[in-house]
Amino acid sequence: MNYIEFFFNDEDKFIAQIHKNGRVRTITNRKNLEKLIEICYQNGYDVQGEGYIDSRVLTITRQYEEYINTRKSKLKVFANITDNMKLKKKSKANGHRILAILLSLSMIAGGYGLTETLSKKDNIQEPTPTYRSVIMEDKEYKSAREAEEDLVETIQEEINDMVQEQSSFHFSYQDRSNSTNMDKVREYQDIFEKYANIYGVDPNLLMAIAAQESGGDHYNNLDNGPACGIMQIEKSVHIGETVTAYNFETGEYDTFEITEENIKDIDTNIRIGAMILRDCIRSSHHNIFIALQTYNFGYGNMSKVLKAYEEAENISKDQAMDNRTNNSWLRYRDAVDAGDDEYLEHVLSYMGTNEITIKNSNGNPLTVSFTNDYLNEKTY
C-alpha cells in the first residue's frame, strides 16, 4: 500500500514518511517537509497535524522528487567549487565564503530560496483524495527571515555533507585491481556491465564482489560448497526463493525465481548477484557501504551490527543508514560471528578506483568516495 504519513516522532518533532512500493522514505528536514506539505495542499490536502494520505500518492511523491532533484542540480555548482578548490577539510572561513556565494545566486535566481520547477505532466487517474488528520491547536507560519535562516541551515548541512563525503571513509588494503582474480572476472565484463546498468549498481563494484567471492572462477564453484558460482549465491538461502529489484531500463520491478539449475548459468548467476546487491542498496536507504557489507553478512546479521551501533552510540538504525557520510558503524562489524568483518576492504582492494557510483531511486547517480591509507599505515 502506498501512503504518506505525518506524525510526531519520539523527540516530539513533526516528520513525514512516504511509503511507496514497499519502501519508506523519512523526511525530517524542515524545508523539505514544508515543500511536501505545500505539494499535498496543491493536490487537495490541507495538512495541519498528524494523519495520512492514501490516494494521489504517486502524483505527490513524483512532484516532491522533482523538487528534490531540482535542488540537488542547483547545488552541483557548489560541489564543483569544492572540487576545484581541492577542499579536504572545510574551515569556517571557506564555509562562509561558499555560503555567501550560494545565497547570492539563490537571491538572483528569484528572491529568497531556490526556485523549484514542478512537472505539469499528470495523466494518472487515482482515487478521490482523502486525508485523515488531528488538527493542531496553532499552525506555524514562518516569516521570510525564518525561511531565509532555514535555507542557510539546510545549505550549510549539504555543503558539510559534500565535503565530509570526500574524506570520511578511510580503509587500509593492498591494491589487487590487477590481480589474476580480476583478470578472470574481466572475461565476463560485458555481462557485469549489462546487469549493472539494468539494476543501477556500479559495474566495477559488482566485478570486485565477484573477484572476492569466487576469485572470478564460476565453473569450479558450482557444486563444491554452500554457495554457487561466480557471485557465490548462498544455496540454502536463495534456491526456491525469489529476488526482486528495480529495473531502470523498464521502470518496473523485476522478480526472478532462483532454482538449483538456473543458478549455475553464469549469466543468470551474475544477474542474481546484481539483483541481490540492488536489494541490499534499497534496504539500506542507498547507503552503499552498508549495502556492500549486507551482501556478505545477510540482512539479519547486518541488523545485529547496526543494533550494536545503536545501543553503543544512541543512534537509530534509520539514522545510521540515512547518514551516508558516517563511518562510525564500521567499528561494530565484529558484533556477529559470521561472514567477513573486513569484507569492505577485501572487495574495495579489487576496485582500482576510490569512488563507487550507483543510481538512486530516481535514476540519478549517487557517488561515495573513500581513501586507501595502506601506504601511510593508517586505519579508520
Which features would summarize this protein structure in a list?
380 residues, Lysozyme, 5-stranded antiparallel sheet, alpha+beta, two-stranded parallel sheet, 2 domains
Walk me through this protein's architecture:
- With 380 residues, the chain is of the alpha+beta class.
- It has two domains: 148 residues, no CATH class; 206 residues, Lysozyme.
- The chain has 13 helices and 13 strands.
- Strands 3-2-1-4-5 form a five-stranded antiparallel beta sheet.
- Strand 7 and strand 8 form a beta hairpin.
- Helix 3 packs across helix 4 and helix 5 packs across helix 7.
- The longest helix has 28 residues.
- The two termini are 41 Å apart.
- 28% of the residues are buried.
- About 14% of the residues have low confidence.
Summarize the structure.
The chain has 380 residues and is of the alpha+beta class.
Please write out the topology.
Elements: E1 3-8, E2 14-20, E3 23-27, H1 30-42, E4 49-53, H2 57-84, H3 92-110, E5 131-135, H4 144-165, E6 170-171, H5 180-186, H6 189-199, H7 203-214, E7 227-228, E8 233-234, H8 235-238, E9 242-247, E10 252-257, H9 266-283, H10 288-297, H11 299-313, H12 317-322, H13 343-348, E11 355-359, E12 365-369, E13 371-372
Parallel strand pairs: 6-13
Antiparallel strand pairs: 1-2, 1-4, 2-3, 4-5, 7-8, 9-10, 11-12
Helix pairs in contact: 1-2, 2-4, 3-4, 5-7, 6-7, 6-9, 9-10, 10-11
Number of contiguous helices: 13
User: By helix and strand content, what is the structural category?
Assistant: alpha+beta
CATH class descriptor of the largest domain: Mainly Alpha
The tally of strands reads 13
**In which order are the strands of the major sheet placed?**
3-2-1-4-5
Ranges where pLDDT stays below 50 over 5 or more residues in a row are: 81-93, 105-143
How many discrete structural domains?
2
Instruction: Return the CATH topology of the largest domain.
Output: Lysozyme
User: Any idea what the shape is?
Assistant: globular
Distance between the termini: 41 Å
Order of helices and strands: EEEHEHHEHEHHHEEHEEHHHHHEEE
In round numbers, the mean pLDDT is 79
Radius of gyration: 23 Å
For the sheet with most strands, the description reads: 5 strands, antiparallel
The residue fraction in helices comes out at 40-55%
* Binned strand content: 15-25%
CATH arch. level architecture of the largest domain: Orthogonal Bundle
